[in-house]
Design goal:
The chain has 105 residues and is an alpha+beta fold. It contains one helix and six strands; from the N terminus they run E-E-E-E-E-E-H. The chain has one domain.
Length: 105
């Protein structure tokens, strides 16, 4: 079993946190999360993971709510790739929406 874990910068105030476990070439669990530094602390904005026994996306809101959306891919390798690609393509949109919510608080 191999565990890969890293944190990479994303924009001026964000980072992408990744952790996945593989057995041979097969992903057995994963977590990909976009976080931003707001008001002196790191806050999760969107997270893809396999907690709760299935692959899903949690979209966080500034008021603490989470929107959970099940990923429909059966292969966790594909889910992990999808999550990483989604964050690369859409982190700016997630950031803008979250910061607007923070501004309303």
């Amino acid at each position: 079993m191999k565990v890969v874990e890293y944190v990479a910068p994303l924009g001026i105030d964000g980072r992408r946190r990744v952790r996945h476990t593989r057995f041979e070439a097969k992903v057995t669990e994963f977590m990909v999360q976009y976080e931003i530094f707001v008001k002196g602390k790191w806050l999760p904005v969107v997270r893809y993971d396999t907690s709760h026994g299935y692959a899903h996306r949690d979209l966080m809101h500034a008021d603490g709510r989470k929107e959970k959306i099940k990923l429909l891919f059966k292969d966790l390798n594909i889910c992990l790739t999808y999550a990483e690609n989604d964050l690369r393509a859409n982190w700016k949109n997630y950031r803008e929406k979250f910061l607007k919510e923070v501004g309303r608080r």
